[in-house]
Amino acid sequence: MRESGENYLETILLLQKKLGCVRSIDIANRLDYSKPSVSRAMSILKKQDYITMDKSGFIELTDKGLQKAKEIYERHILIQEFLIETLGVEPDIAEQDACRIEHIISTRTFDRIREYVEEHRQ
């Protein structure tokens, strides 16, 4: 899956937690993307069985989509925590960097970061 698809899944997960129900316009507003761009992405995610969309336009993550979104979000949170707590990076910069790093980091490196963060949590 490409970075943009991962960003959409993570955004859907966060919006579901916040709003309960998610529509394309909510995603467009959150990411500051055009509605046509979001609609195209939702079509791709639906074909890949990451989301379902009902006739009213409400979007839900499938089990596959939920699992992937949770993985991405976990990476984001742990990387952000590592950057702040271990390296002393300012929270707003750590947020932005974690958003980029979460998509390209290897599983091995992420696992080591997870182990480090878990060992050093206060």
Give an overview of the whole structure.
Helix 4 (63-85) packs across helix 5 and helix 4 (63-85) packs across helix 6 (107-120). A three-stranded antiparallel sheet has the order 1-3-2. The N and C termini lie far apart (34 Å). With 122 residues, it is mainly alpha-helical. Strand 2 (51-53) and strand 3 form a beta hairpin. The model has no long low-confidence stretch (mean pLDDT 93). It contains six helices and three strands.
Highlighted features:
122 residues, mainly alpha, three-stranded antiparallel sheet, transcription, DNA-binding, WH_DNA-bd_sf, DtxR_MntR_Metal-Reg
Give a quick rundown of the structure.
70% of the residues lie in helices and 7% in strands. The chain is mostly helical.
Low-confidence stretches: none
Number of strands: 3
Rg for CA atoms: 15 Å
**Sheet of most strands:** 3 strands, antiparallel
Distance between the ends: 34 Å
